[in-house]
Automatic annotation (TrEMBL):
UniProt KW Protein transport keyword: no
Single Gene Ontology BP annotation: putrescine transport
InterPro entries: AAA+_ATPase, ABC_SmlMolc_Importer, ABC_transporter-like_ATP-bd, ABC_transporter-like_CS, P-loop_NTPase
Organism (species): Salipiger bermudensis (strain DSM 26914 / JCM 13377 / KCTC 12554 / HTCC2601)
CC per GO annotation: plasma membrane; protein-containing complex
SUPFAM superfamilies to which the protein is assigned, alphabetical: P-loop containing nucleoside triphosphate hydrolases (SSF52540)
Residues covered by the ABC transporter domain: 4-234
Protein name per its UniProtKB record: Probable ATP-binding component of ABC transporter
Gene Ontology MF: a single term: ATP hydrolysis activity
PROSITE patterns the UniProt entry points to: ABC_TRANSPORTER_1, ABC_TRANSPORTER_2
Domain of life where this protein originates: Bacteria
Keyword annotations: ATP-binding, Nucleotide-binding, Transport
Length: 340
């Protein structure tokens, strides 16, 4: 395992700047997720770490060594692309041992390592099978075993679960996380799915237009976003402009008992409820829809009838349509940069 230090990395494709001075420190053994919409530069950054692209400016240090101009095969990294291709005519054992064979490792040692890796992904009993005999999720696990068999210090994964259906993807996310913990290898994983990022990351790097918007734990990025882009990308948020007043803030909803601040108060729908927290004033339920694990409710505040607050209330806990209730907020985050 090794740390990765990205220093002022800039990347241009002709006149187009895909990465603007990205600085990022990834700890050894960390599970980092690069998250952002399509085109924000995730694959470009991953390719620069793996050595498939040389940055226009800046440096990439892996394990403290400058790797900026080192070829992919001479880096302690392995990249697993979304369209990981297993060799159809080879057994799983030979597929997993392929990288070792390329490095001149003998058959016995190769097979032993391949079996160990297949065991780790729960497929040891299928070592003699061919890829077409497996399900999509199983093939994915073989690709992971193959990538880890060469014992890279850093594993780079570009949307590896993108082709799987939702249920299998959830399962594979948990397995990926468990395997990463077990092997202790640094994982840099690319996705555009914020739920996947939160489920697996130690830290999430939110990217937008070639820039890092926020880098932090899933809780930090979700509950304490630094920018409105991060706030919106991580999930739905209610916005209320606030200005400091007395010991709290004033807002279109009236005075709110939160720490004095100037900017845009962001509240996740699950952090608006009927009991705990600071009062958001009285509001009328104008719409409610059942989503299984919660009710999604739109409230019209009495003090600001042109506003709607969205709350996710637990099953069976929502008032009737047209009922007036007092709403409460929890986990407030105020974005100073978004001052009204
Ligand atoms: P992501 O993986 O986040 O979807 P990419 O890193 O693939 O984004 O691309 C970032 C931006 O750089 C996009 O606008 C893309 O069109 C552009 N880009 C990527 N590769 C090339 C290339 N080889 N030549 C020109 N532009 C490119
Ligand atoms: Mg990409």
């Amino acid at each position: 395992t090794a740390d990765v230090h990205i220093k002022a990395v800039e990347h241009r494709f002709k006149a187009f700047t895909a990465l603007h001075r990205v600085d990022l420190q990834i700890g050894a053994g960390e599970f980092i997720v690069l998250l952002g919409p399509s085109g924000c530069g995730k694959t470009t950054l991953l390719s620069i770490i793996g050595g498939f692209l040389t940055p226009s400016e800046g440096q990439v240090l892996i394990g403290g060594r400058d790797m900026t101009h080192v070829a992919p095969k001479d880096r302690p990294t392995t990249t697993m692309f979304q369209d990981y291709a297993l060799f159809p005519h080879m057994s799983l054992r030979d597929n997993v041992g392929f990288g070792l064979r390329m490095r001149g490792v003998g058959r016995a040692a190769r097979n032993a390592k391949a079996l160990e890796m297949l065991e780790m992904v729960g497929l040891a009993d299928k070592a003699g099978r061919r890829p077409h005999e497996l399900s999509g999720g199983q093939r994915q696990r073989v690709a992971l075993a193959r990538a880890l068999a060469v014992e890279p210090d850093v594993l780079l994964l570009d949307e590896p679960l993108g082709a799987l259906d939702l249920k299998l993807r959830r399962q594979m996310q948990e397995e990926l996380k468990a395997i990463q913990r077990r092997v202790g290898t640094t994982f840099v994983h690319v996705t555009h799915d914020q739920e996947e990022a939160m489920a697996i990351a130690d830290r999430i790097v939110v990217m937008n237009h070639g820039r890092v918007e926020h880098c932090g734990s899933p809780e930090e990025v979700y509950l304490r976003p630094r920018t409105m882009f991060s706030a919106d990308f991580m999930g739905e948020t209610n916005r209320v402009p606030v200005t400091p007043s007395g010991g709290g803030v004033s807002s279109p909803l009236g005075p709110l008992a939160i720490a004095p601040a100037e900017g845009m108060l962001c509240l996740r729908p699950e952090n608006i409820g009927l009991a705990e927290g600071f009062s958001l004033g009285r509001a009328t339920l104008v719409e409610a829809a059942f989503y299984g694990s919660y009710h999604r409710c739109h409230f019209r505040p009495l003090a600001a009838p042109d506003m709607l607050l969205t709350a996710h209330l637990p099953q069976g806990a929502h008032p009737g349509l047209g009922d007036e209730v007092e709403l409460f907020g929890r986990n407030p985050a105020v974005l100073a940069s978004e001052a009204a």
